[in-house]
Specification:
With 180 residues, the protein is an all-alpha fold. The protein has one domain (18-165). Helices cover 67% and strands 0% of the residues. It has helices at 3-11, 21-45, 48-57, 69-74, 77-96, 100-113, 118-128, 141-160, 163-168. α6 (100-113) packs across α8 (141-160). The longest helix is centred in the N-terminal third of the chain and has 25 residues, at 21-45. The chain is elongated, with a radius of gyration of 22 Å. It starts with a helix and ends in a 12-residue tail after the last helix.
Length: 180
Amino acid sequence: MSEMRKHFLAQFGLELVLSNPMLRVTQLDDEAAKEDLRLRTLEPIGYDFGRLIYLSSLRDFNTGEYYHQGLAHSFSEQAASAALAACHQEIFYRLTSSPLESLVAQVERFIRSSPHDWEKTFNAWETLEAYRVMIPSVSNRLVAELFRSNVKVAMEVLKCRGGIQAETQPAASPLPLLGQ
C-alpha cells in the first residue's frame, strides 16, 4: 500500500489491518455511507434536535437495528446501519453537551414545526416523554440521564416563558381612539 493511501486512510481515523483487505473495504464503505448520510440527509434538517429525532425514527425499537433504504441501496445494509448508529451517537453526544439555551431553542423549533396545535404537541411531549426514544441504544447511562434531564428543563423553560399561553391567547382588542 502506498504511503499516500495510508496517510489518506489515517486522516479518517481508520485503523489499518493490513492482513485483512476486506476489513479495510468495510471501513471505507462505512465512512463513505456516513459522509453521504451527513451531506444528503442530515445537513438539510438544519438542527441537531431534528436530526436526532430523524435518526431515532430509523431504528427498529424491537431489535435496535437501523435501516435506511437509500443508504442500504447505495452501500450495503451493514454500512448503512453502521453509519446511522455512528451519526446517532455523535449527534446525541454533541446535543447533550451543548448549552441549555441552544437546546431550548431547538426543542421549541421542533415543537413549533409540528402541524398540530403547539399546546397539544407540547403537552404530549411532556406527558409521554417522547424524547426518551431519541437516546441511542449504545450510550453512557449517565449521559442518557443528563439528556433526559436537559430536555425536561428545556420544556420547563418554554413553559415558564409563556410560549404555550402566548400561542393560544386571542389577540388583544384595539384600544378605542380618543373621543370615541
